[in-house]
Amino acid sequence: MRILHIHAHPDDAEIFCGGTLAHLVAKGHHVTIVTMTPGDCGSNHHSPEEIGRIRRQEAADGAAMIGADYFCAEFRDLAIFETDEARRRVTGILRRTQPDLVITASPIDYHCDHEATSRLVRDAAFAAPAPNYDASAYGDYPVMKAIPHIYFADPAEGTDRDSRPCIPHFVVDIESTLSKKRDMLAAHESQRLWLKEHHGMDNYLETMEAWSAQVGKYAGMRFGEGFRQYKMHPYPVTPLLEELLGPALVTTLEERDRTNVEKIVRSLRLGRERRRVAGHAHRPAAG
Questions:
Q1: Is 160 part of any domain?
Q2: CATH number for the domain including 191?
Q3: Within a domain: residue 253?
Q4: Is residue 286 in a domain?
Q5: Residue 103 in 3-state DSSP?
Q6: Which residue has the higher pLDDT, 272 or 125?
Q7: Distances in whole angstroms, Cα of residue 102 to Cα of each of 33, 54, 121, 271
Q8: CA distance 101 to 239
């Protein structure tokens, strides 16, 4: 099977889906990782061109660690919008890669680029098999034979913008691939300083592990990654991703699990907020 992971920035694939992508490659599936942007705003110390060049290479290095392909769609940070041009460009990416299954960003997340990416990918998946929808400006690729399966990764910290829990449909056990996920994310060395300076994130590798542990708790695992399938008409509704991974790695969350997930998210969110308050209190004043 051909799997396309398309998210907004370099390091998003690793943070939200790295363990699952490693599982898929190990099972013999072809994985392509696409970032919408080269992460050109992700630095206080490099120009957009310099940091973009650095981050494209970091993303390619991270993908290579699991045997995945990588390329950048060449949008720009904070400039991904739902326009006719953007939808045709993303449609061209789908026709280029011909995926059976697409994993993309959560439609509700903390970052506008994540949300715009999610909606563009969802709509491009609908357009890609339509022969009269012209995306030839972005490559002479054949139209797809069918709408691919669409899955949304979890949002950051597992919540929407109002801090309400975003419950995944199922959780993938990534305990056996966590070390690969960590190595992939560690390839994005340029982001260590940026995330500390801009996000107040002391150690992005530890934060990733904490988020993975949080999702794992939803399903009684040590580490997990959560996903929701988009099932609106006429998108495919068969559980393809779950079938590719196999029952040993997938735990479906039932309605009865919702209260437990909400308690876990609420408790961890309060802890993070206390740490953020303490961190801001120790930041030097501007000027």
A1: yes
A2: 3.40.50.10320
A3: yes
A4: no
A5: strand
A6: 125
A7: 10, 26, 8, 33
A8: 10
Residue whose structure tokens are 């437990």: 260
**CB contact set of 231 (below 8 Å; sequence gap of 6+):** 237
d(CA 31, CA 22): 9
- Of 48, 39, 29, 66, nearest to 246 (Cα)? 29
Q: Using N-to-C axis directions, what is the helix angle for 12-26 and 48-64, rounded to 10°?
A: 20
Cβ count near 123 (within 10 Å): 15
What six digits make up the tokens of 168? 């995944």
Average pLDDT over residues 199-203: 69
Give the chain's domain count. Answer: 1
Model pLDDT for residues 11-25, shown as the tens digit of each residue:
999 999 999 999 999
pTM assigned to the model: 0.92
User: Does 146 fall in a domain?
Assistant: yes
For residue 277, what pLDDT is reported?
67
Between 257 and 243, the higher pLDDT residue:
243
- Residues β-bridged to residue 72: 35
Which two three-digit tokens encode residue 80? 């991904």
DSSP helix/strand/coil, 161: coil
Q: What CA–CA distance (Å, rounded) separates 96 from 244?
A: 22
Tens digits of residue pLDDT in 32-61: 999 999 999 988 899 999 999 999 999 999
State how far the Cα of 274 lies from the Cα of 196, in Å rounded to an integer: 17
Range of the domain at 136: 2-281
Q: How far apart are CA 199 and CA 4, in angstroms?
A: 28
